[in-house]
Write a structure and sequence with these properties.
five-stranded parallel beta sheet; 243 residues; alpha/beta; OB fold (Dihydrolipoamide Acetyltransferase, E2P); Rossmann fold; 15 strands; 7 helices
Length: 243
């Protein structure tokens, strides 16, 4: 896996690179000294995993993730144990405390490689043909002090709320500062459908469909939630679902 090290401390970067050198599965392809540097190098080098410091001069590691459309796998490397535990849910990501211990790094990499092996796409990688986010991509969502790494397949639907969009997954519905139109352009239309001005729905979460009084449709999700498909979009939806 190609890796990028993002840390403003040169000695911390060199120490981590040295520790990673004994792990053949990881290839360090670059270093970044701050968020803006990392943003450019991620676009250029396309790493599969980034080792990311949280507290850096200027922008934080959180802000870097918010800037990215496609988030690589992320391992946080931080000196702030209490801060990391507060900011992230236990199963949402992994993090290493400075100074990094070789045993802890090995444990982290073992989990990383295992997850990568289990999530490999059997179909041709969609990113080779399109810059759209794929169904198996994960995105970073931050709302206040809570942060999540969410696979798009686990998002039931998106709901427009002014200049924000609510992201519905599990019991959560955090808000991101993005328009529904911009989000629609990035999503794979084979899996996500623009039901109306207000909603984009994940087709795999639909359990059944009913006709609505105004010529539109209502889709019932497996969770019991209902999403109205506008009359204008109903024709497209019927064609898509072969109704």
């Amino acid at each position: 896996m190609k890796a990028l090290i993002v840390d403003d401390e040169r000695l911390a970067r060199k120490e981590l690179i040295s520790l990673l050198s004994v792990h053949e599965q990881i290839e360090v392809v670059g270093e970044a000294i701050n968020v803006d540097d990392a943003f450019e190098k991620i676009k250029q080098l396309k790493p599969e995993v980034i080792f990311l410091d949280i507290q850096m001069p200027g922008k934080t590691g959180f802000e870097l993730l918010e800037m990215l459309d496609h988030v690589p796998k992320v391992i946080f490397v931080t000196a702030y144990d209490e801060y990391a535990l507060k900011a992230f849910e236990v199963n949402a990501m992994d993090y290493l405390l400075k100074p990094v211990q070789p045993e802890r790094l090995e444990e982290c990499l073992s989990k990383l490689i295992s997850n990568e092996t289990n999530s490999e796409l059997k179909e041709e990688d969609i990113l080779d043909r399109s810059d759209k986010l794929t169904y198996n991509d994960q995105v970073f969502v931050k709302d206040g002090e809570k942060c999540w790494f969410v696979k798009l397949q686990n998002v039931r639907f998106f709901e427009s709320d002014g200049n924000y969009v609510k992201v519905f997954f599990g019991e959560n519905k955090p808000m991101i500062h993005r328009s529904l139109n911009a989000l629609e352009e990035r999503l794979d239309s084979r899996h996500f459908f623009r039901a109306s001005r207000k909603y984009i729905v994940n087709l795999s979460w639909i359990e059944n469909i009913e006709t609505w009084f105004n010529g539109g449709l209502v889709v019932h999700l497996k969770t019991g939630e209902k999403i109205e498909v506008s009359r204008r979009q109903s024709t497209k939806f019927k064609e898509l679902m072969s109704l």
